[in-house]
Amino acid sequence: MSDRSTGAATWPRLKRPALVVAAVGLLFAAGVVALPGTAGAATTLGASAAARDGRFFGTAVAAGKLSDSAYTTILDREFNAVTPENEMKIDATEPQQNQFSYANADRIVAHARGLGMQVRGHTLAWHSQQPGWMQNMSGSALRQAMLNHVTQVATHFRGQVAWWDVVNEAFADGSSGARRDSNLQRTGNDWIEAAFTAARAADPNAKLCYNDYNTDNWTAAKTQAVYRMVQDFKNRGVPIDCVGLQSHFTGGSSYPSNYRTTLSSFAALGVDVHITELDITNAPATAYTSVTNDCLAVARCRGITVWGIRDSDSWRSGESPLLFTSSGGKKAAYTSVLTALNNGAPPTGPTTPPTTPPTVPPTTPPGGGSCTASITPGTVWADRYNTTVTVTGSTTWTVTIDITAPQKVSTTWNGTFTWSNNGNTMTIKPNGSGNTFGFTTMTNGNTTARPRITACTTS
Ligand code: G3I
Questions:
Q1: Residues 202, 157, 88, CA angle at the centre, nearest 5°?
Q2: The pTM is what?
Q3: Given the CA of residue 246, which atom of ligand 1 is nearest to it?
Q4: Residue of 211, 233, 224, 18 whose CA lies nearest to 120
Q5: Which residues have C-beta within 8 Å of that of residue 175, sequence separation ≥ 6?
Q6: What percent of the chain has pLDDT over 70?
Q7: Atom of ligand 1 nearest to the CA of 60
Q8: What is the mean pLDDT of residues 314-318?
């Protein structure tokens, strides 16, 4: 698991009992033990996640609670990854410019690594929880101070942090799809890639993530904007390895039915996907199960972190959003998550793609048109496939293509694409790139359906 392309930086150094249960879980994965939920199943979240191809199940941890034995009993038993909840933020690690303070973060790292847990660093560059001296800075001085912070902190934790949330919450909410205004954004639009480049130089072995909230619904403008940034970074070689979906689900921002599409679409860009701050108002077992199953269904979804252990530890404790009661009892959602982890990946169709994708014959355009569109099937992967379409007979064409749900188009090129409200019909017009356009379709479990051209008209 040290290969950058496959997920976690290293296999978790599991506690001895965890090694045993992980091995049992691997037997499950290999089909040696067929029945889930039997006596051989893993009995903790971390061990059962580790048995699922080395995934992590983590929690946010507060240094001040490490002296609470009720807290550490659950932490040490259940989890194989931790994220310091506040202790690695900028105001905590550099309270005065160039004076670094690591004591609380070091305590969490030592506790976690002493038990073989992986550590997620959170976070190197953020508009929030900046110390006063940074809040008052701007321009090139702020840019340099931010890069120095990234370099110093990532260097301090080099070799101890598996994943860094390099940049946190840089996009605006709502329908704009724009970057969030902040003092960091005002230093220039390239501040995010500059932060990633500095982090890579400081700790070449840490996985570098972009982390945000309200990026769970695939059709949300914010999700699409983050997707396009990651796509752009991958295209230009900016060092990014993973995307974190915070997934704070509330009544107003609930678990979306297209969550798996979001996970698989980011994964198709060639980055790992992590669920980094999961909590759900009133902890419904169904939504927790769905999140778990969605992660298991996407190979590059490498793990889940819940944002606290007991409800009383939550930043929104009034909503009881976590897996343990305030007195440390396992809630129904805990049992559901553990069962889902032990059951393994839900069915997603064959993992071996057909070697010869079915061809879709071009259709005759309806009356009035004088163009023809024809499909050429492209590369097929386990979870997605490419299609190109060539139009003849006109240069001012409009092509309509139907996609069979739950398949969804994740990437397009060489055309101007618009979608119907349900996302299943797309209309494509030329964008100056010629008469051949293309797109990538996520199968989302249906590996046989293929796009159908329903019209080619001229204008
Ligand atoms: O420790 C001090 C305490 O000494 C003081 O008396 C008290 C008075 O307000 O404040 C305490 O610090 C608080 C700290 O949590 C520890 O409890 C801060 O005020 C409070 O702002 C801080 O809130 C944190 C919040 O981030 C700040 O933005 C939450 O704990 C933390 O859970 C939350 O985490 C964020 C992620 O980093 C990013 N994604 C969203 C998530 C939830 O907001």
A1: 110
A2: 0.73
A3: 39
A4: 211
A5: 221
A6: 86
A7: 32
A8: 97
Going by C-beta distance under 8 Å and a sequence separation of 6 or more, which residues neighbour residue 22?
Answer: 14, 42, 47, 50, 51
**Strand, coil or helix: 369:** coil
Measured in angstroms, how far is the CA atom of residue 374 from the centroid of ligand 1?
A: 56
Residue type at 106 in one-letter notation = D
DSSP β-ladder status, 384-392 and 372-380: antiparallel
Model pLDDT for residues 37-46, shown as the tens digit of each residue: 445 689 999 9
Q: Is cis: bond before 406, omega within 30 of 0?
A: yes
Residue 234 CA, ligand 1 centroid: distance in Å: 33
428 SS3 class:
strand
Instruction: Clarify whether 94 is annotated catalytic.
Output: no
Residue tagged active-site, from 87, 169, 193, 319: 169
Measured in Å, residue 315 CA sits from the centre of ligand 1 at 7
C-alpha 174/C-alpha 214 separation (Å) is: 9
Average pLDDT over residues 216-225: 97
Q: Is a pLDDT exceeding 70 seen at residue 244? A: yes
Amino acid at 168: N
What are the pocket residues of ligand 1 if the criterion is a CB atom closer than 6 Å to any ligand atom?
Answer: 85-86, 128-129, 168, 213, 246, 277, 315
20 CA from centroid of ligand 1 (Å): 37
- Averaged pLDDT, 279-294: 98
Contact 154, 124 (CB under 8 A): yes
Return the ligand 1 atom nearest residue 128 CA: 28
The DSSP symbol for 327 reads T
Is residue 342 helix, strand or coil? helix
CB atoms closer than 10 angstroms to residue 248: 19
Phi/psi for 418 (5° steps) reads -130, 155
DSSP secondary-structure letter at 311?
G
Tally of CB atoms within 10 A around 105: 25
Look at residue 19 and tell me whether its pLDDT is greater than 70.
no
Q: What does the pLDDT average to over 103-124?
A: 98
pLDDT at 443 exceeding the cut of 90:
no
Active site annotation includes 169 = yes
Q: Which atom of ligand 1 is nearest to the CA of 122?
A: 37
Most confident of 29-33, 149-153, 435-439: 149-153
DSSP state of 436: E
With tokens 């480049």, the residue in question is 197
Residue 371 pLDDT greater than 90, yes or no: no
Residue identifier of the C-alpha nearest atom 35 of ligand 1: 85
Ligand 1 centre and the CA of 86: distance in Å?
7
